[in-house]
Amino acid sequence: GERTADHLGFTRLAAAVLCERVRLWLTAGDLATAGHVFDAGPCASRAGGTVGPETRELLQMAEARLRCAQGRASEAVPRLQSLLDTAVVQHRRIFEIRVRILLALALDAAGEPVASRTMLAGALVMGLSAGMKRSFLDEGPRLRVLMTQLHDGLATGGFSDPEWAHLREPFAELLAIGAREASVAGESIRGTDVPGRTPRAAGVLLD
């Protein structure tokens, strides 16, 4: 778990495991446990302290998730926007896509549907072009709803926008995979941790 990784000096790995556990508990609908996991994490208290920038970013992402789940999405939006600005400046495309996905969810929760749709569209154009799927699929039912709404809107216009023309099939495939996974899992998340079990952190590190 994250304590072992932190003890061995693998602070970024510890943060990745911690943040994945937070995501899994939130997707399972257990805000209290997600908050406890974050607060009790060995590196959580260093979110603004002495850890490296990438570790700090992971912790800030997890904290933004918690704010959204707590009904405080308006607090998460500027923090995520700051992370996005950094990712763009540093040309970190994969991280940029992941921040855009979470920012789309935060904007939606903050009552800004147009901005949310624009942010999600940007994430999908970049992500689908790069062959990314898991980063979208792991975000749970609300993102699937937002993606379906976006897809339906694009389909109404015949996917006439040039940047979407070559992404029509990958987008449909992404939604189909999401629907199958939701059906098989009954909206539960594969690998959700339970007492005595450690979740996988692969979703944070790899797509």
In short:
The protein is mainly α. The chain has helices spanning 2-7, 11-27, 31-40, 53-69, 73-89, 93-109, 113-129, 134-137, 141-156, 162-165, 168-185, 202-205.
Number of E strands? 0
Distance between the termini: 20 Å
Helical proportion, percent range: over 70%
Quickly give the structural class.
Answer: mainly alpha
Number of helices: 12
Q: In terms of per-residue confidence, which ranges show pLDDT below 50 for 5 or more consecutive residues?
A: 5-9, 188-206
Structural shape: globular
Largest sheet: none
Return Rg in Å.
Answer: 17 Å
N-to-C SSE string, H for helix and E for strand: HHHHHHHHHHHH
Mean pLDDT: 84
Strand content: under 5%
Key descriptive features of the protein:
207 residues; mainly alpha; 12 helices; 0% strand; globular; disordered C terminus
